[in-house]
Write a structure and sequence with these properties.
Number of strands: 2
Radius of gyration: 26 Å
Low-confidence stretches: 1-23
Structural class: mainly alpha
Oligomer: single chain
Mean pLDDT: 84
Shape: globular
Strand content: under 5%
Helix content: over 70%
Amino acid sequence: MTTSTISVGTGPSAAELAAFEQERPARTLSPVLDRGISVCCALVSVGVLVQVFFPIPAGTQFYLMLFLAAVLPGALLCYRGWRVPAFLNPFRGDRRSDDPPVADWVLASVALVVSLYPLLDFDAFLERRQAPTQLDLLAGSLLLVLALEACRRTTGWVLPVVSLLFIGYAYYGGYLPYTWSLAHQGFDFSAIVAQLFMGTAGFYGTPLAVAASYIVLFTIYGAVLDASGAGKFFIDVSFAAFKSSRTAPGRTVTLAGFLLGTVSGSGTATAVSLGTVAWPILRRAGYPSEPAGGMLAAAGIGAILSPPTLGAAAFIIAEYLQVSYLVVLGYATVPTVLYYLGILLAIEMDARRHGTEAAEPSTESARRLLLRFGYHFVSLFLIIGFMAMDIPPFKAVVYATLLQIGLSFLDREHRLTPRRLGMALAQGTRSVLPVVATCAVAGIIVAVVTQTGLGLNLAEIIVSAASAISENHTVVLIMTVTLSAFAVMVLGLAVPVTASFIIAAVVIAPALFQLGVAPAEAYMFIFYYAVLSEVSPPTALAAVATAAITGGRAIPTMWQAWKYTLPAFLVPFAFVLTPNGANLLGLEGLGGAAWTLAVSALAVAALAVVTGGWIAVRTGRLERLLCFPAALLLLYLAPTTIGVGLGLLGVAVVINLARRQRLRNTEGPLPS
């Protein structure tokens, strides 16, 4: 076995990252305007950090209005709108930039005014909710239009159109025949606007509250972490950790993806960051472009499925369940172990099938790197430790951010001087602009569902449709869960993860509740399928991004990514379908989590055989045919099905061992 030594790259540029983000790429602003907006964003970050320790006395809704007023204009200025003639651009002197035209400055100004309007007489504004004035309705209508436009610019047309359909349902639902399950009393436009603008379930509902109280703090922390050199350290230490075997490149990609997720918070961005650096190593090791792209996409998506940060939707789960964020991290622990076990097993099998070689990057030893830069882990552990001490996560992450700023001075190259710190704070707020626009518009859907009772009505329709096919509760549950998974994945193909989770949580989750699924299990099921839409054909943004880097074909890369992430598609079914599925989330104690983890690990191994085609040697069709039902039976986590599944898996292993012995007898010693 030969070992190649190559250099580790420096990583993608901001433009390369933006090109593959789920949110649309931001404008390339001229230097003067970019500095001006950066200063404003940095001030917003400072205000958000101060708010944690010195909250505004007027209350949460007052703060949310102020936060939206500070962020919404930035989204309208930093992201491209409609094409306008060049002469309308006040900054057209720099032809390399695409600064906002006059029309966008007008929209941003109006957004600022209508967002601040309720604060002029806040108490009186709240008292007028049942009888809004014409000025209230005008301001609310303008904010509705501007929020939809900001969302369109940052994420595309789909979510705004879906939101408008929900508004249309709220208005016209009263005209539906009263015998229809979806019929309701109907609401006029003033009632709808009042619900969105003056209530606590519209623009200023749970989604925006989570974005303003949690997500923005973690994006600031991630920006500070990255600016202090943590991102570079995570990649370097991952490459240094696995140097000596042909599976080392794949293991390195997996570990680096896990670590980079704490900085990025976006699966696609993590995959791009990782792919730019790791693809030369994977290519030198002998990986074909499509399997390499699939592996990179799977590693990137794993970053937002995994503690300690998870994705933005995890904060919303905590808010919906009224539990601490640390509890949600606990829910994700066993599924995360199973996810990465599946990737590592697939890597082992692919290394043998493709005949890969070791490819040693020219990095320092892992020990030397850890001794020199291991302090980057301290702030991550601090967050977990503080939350374990019942310190709220929004305070824990601020403490971690302050600590990371101090630790940055241990590295002369990455010390956070005032200028570098200001840039990091600005990047923290800029990163959250698309999320805030998404959450504000998602609040429209939540408000309509609350106002019309749509969630319960749809739940009854879904359950009734499944019951029409069979009266057996298990069959009804299986059909409902399967339809729900498909619906969440389809939804996730068109809208960002956070938005698809919010919509599914208010529309689909009630159907699962009616069938006896516990809220924690239902929300985690929806969360996983919302995230997995990023590696699901036909869009699979993470796979498309990595295919562009490796030069592979997009569709085959998507299927390779699906192969690596298959356990994550099936394990969530165990949450909601099996009697012992709650153990996978740690809801029944450590003992239950331990034995279900062990059984599920065997199921994941069986799935890896199905997709990877290897046990001791390359498998035949028979071994794969045996392993697939074995995996499903093991994942059901019932004593009888576990016994049958183990039997099928054992038969497959015995057949493959016999196959290896025959090959040895005919071909001599086999390569390991």
